[in-house]
Specification:
This protein has seven helices and 36 strands. The protein has 549 residues and is mostly beta strands.
């Protein structure tokens, strides 16, 4: 089965034939900017709701070009350091539902207390702690599970030494700064950078860029330099591990200057932009596609990605282990049909199956088996694997046309118009909708059955974050928050929503974060990326270009 999974109540509409897809003139337009008052402040002045309400907060704002400001917010500078600890991996205990499960950060109470007691008996200052998390739009919150920790230390060196003793005794774990826990009301330091693009004064370009091709990664600073950008931030989630596809390939919807080059993950949210910076919006997007020839048609599974590997899942009903979004997971499907453009890279992916190679007029010029190779100038191709390989071979006849049609659909099932100058970058979860907190981890694959440790590490704990959205004045706002350091704690996902609202965002979405979080301005990286190697190469970036001539 090659139908796309859109979600309850809209599946049938999404599975309608692409041949019946309305023309671009009847497609849903990008949202228009609402009427706004004149000359609002560059960033909403409301203090960030992070940590102890009594923390000091400073803001500095500079104008980078007409209509573009950069604001740096530092909250809690100079506060006392919180303790370090060692978080111990917990095996399934005798009371666990799955005693043979691999060790995890969180377990049931009985398993955690059993491990803590064992560690205490061996001379370690161990404790079991309950972890609770707030309720969100589609997740009830409450108790996530129980963790086991050893000791409280004044610095990382002492925590590392305690961890070494634990490892020598046969246990696994990691040193952790307690300021990263996500607990409210703590003392600590936050560093947040905010780019604001006001379309009324902006005469540059607001675009998404991915570099020379989709299948390779580039640093945000490299993408900015190549485009001559005034500023930029990293953007959507992407393939990182070659075992999950082509590193750098977007793991979700991707549109660049109006060209749709990556399908959506289920109906996860995306940031939709115009190069004029007018009408920026956050919307949930589905996708469908089909290849058609004189003798019939086949539904598409994807665009410009390695067949059989679906990063973040959210694909078709026959994908394994799920057709629903599952963040940071790779689903598989042995039977797929994937279209390729010249933007993918110098060569299409090699492997078993069939590939129909098309010229610039959509005529079949070659059938390849096995698949993989260069494309003609202006050409494209369709690859099929498994049971669909023979079907494509029978459909694609040399010299005849094979038409590829695909498109995005908005959360009301309408085709999304993507004229030149349109950009779409993938994200998730949603953070703010219509000015209200609206965080959607269940819909977007961050609530994973039987794996509370993923939610704990990815959603609940503080990490570097990149987020984006639009405020009530119609301005596009791009935000980075440094993290994984004692001098910059980062944000949990609920805190990211709180920050978005404090900055006045009407709609906001979380973009790729962690080691990817990067902001560039004036030709240099102005934040502190958290990877030990420094700035991480990414899949794509949002770029603010200078005035167009």
């Amino acid at each position: 089965m090659n139908s796309r999974l859109l979600g309850a109540g809209t599946v049938l509409a999404l599975l309608a034939s692409v041949a019946a897809m309305p023309s671009a003139s009847s497609a849903s337009p990008l949202p228009s900017a609402p009427p706004v008052p004149s000359a609002p402040a560059p960033v909403a002045a409301r203090p960030l709701p992070l940590g102890d309400p009594g923390l000091t907060e400073t803001r500095t704002t500079e104008t980078l070009q007409p209509g573009v400001t950069l604001t740096r917010i530092v909250r809690g500078a100079g506060t006392a350091q919180l303790p370090w600890t060692v978080e111990v991996s917990i095996p399934g205990g005798t009371g666990s539902p799955d005693p043979d499960a691999p060790p995890a950060a969180l377990r049931d109470r009985a398993s955690a207390e059993e491990l803590a007691a064992k560690l205490t008996g061996e001379g370690f200052a161990a404790r079991a702690e309950e972890v609770t998390t707030p309720a969100l739009a589609d997740f009830a919150g409450g108790t996530l599970g129980w963790r086991v920790r050893v000791g409280e230390f004044d610095g990382q060196a002492a925590a590392d030494a305690a961890r070494a003793r634990l490892v020598a005794a046969g246990y696994a774990g990691s040193a952790a700064y307690t300021g990263w826990d996500g607990d409210p009301g703590v003392s600590g330091t936050w560093r947040v950078d905010v780019l604001t693009v006001d379309p009324r004064a902006f005469r540059g370009g607001l675009v998404a860029g991915y570099g020379p091709d989709l299948e390779n990664r580039e640093k945000t600073s490299e993408l900015a330099a190549a485009a001559g950008a005034t500023a930029g931030v990293n953007a959507g989630f992407f393939v990182l591990d070659p075992r999950a596809g082509a590193p750098g390939d977007p793991a979700g919807a991707g549109v660049y200057d109006g060209r749709l080059l990556s399908e959506s993950v289920g109906t996860r949210p995306a940031l939709v932009l115009r190069d004029s910076a007018r009408g920026t919006g956050v919307t949930r997007l589905g996708w469908q596609g089909r290849v058609t020839a004189r003798g019939g048609s086949l539904p598409l599974d994807g665009i410009d990605r390695v067949p059989g590997l679906i990063r973040n899942c959210g694909g078709t009903a026959d994908d394994t282990p799920t057709a629903l979004p599952r963040h940071d997971a790779t689903c598989t499907d042995a039977d797929e049909v994937v279209a390729f453009t010249g933007e993918y890279g110098p060569r299409t992916p090699a492997g078993e199956g069939t590939e129909a190679v098309l010229d610039a007029r959509d005529r079949v010029v070659e059938l390849r088996s096995p698949r993989g190779g260069a494309l003609p100038a202006g050409g494209s191709s369709v690859q099929a694997t498994g049971e669909h390989a023979a079907e494509l071979a029978g459909l694609a006849r040399p010299g005849e046309k094979l038409r590829i049609r695909h498109g995005l659909r908005d959360d009301r099932g309408r085709p999304l118009a993507t004229p030149p100058g349109t950009a779409v970058v993938n994200g998730g979860p949603e953070l703010v909708r219509d000015g209200r907190t609206h965080v959607t981890p269940a819909a977007d694959g961050m609530v994973q059955p039987g794996n509370p440790s993923f939610y704990y590490g990815w959603m609940h704990k503080r990490n570097p974050r990149t987020l984006a959205g639009v405020d009530a004045a119609g301005r596009t706002v791009l935000v980075t928050a440094d993290g994984r350091a004692t001098g910059s704690l980062g944000l949990s996902i609920p805190e990211s929503a709180d920050v978005a609202r404090a900055l006045g965002l009407r709609d906001a979405v979380n973009l790729d974060g962690g080691g990817s979080t990067t902001m560039v301005a004036g030709g240099r990286v102005i934040n502190d990326p958290s990877d030990a190697a420094g700035e991480r190469p990414v899949g794509d970036a949002l770029l603010i270009l200078p005035k167009r001539h």
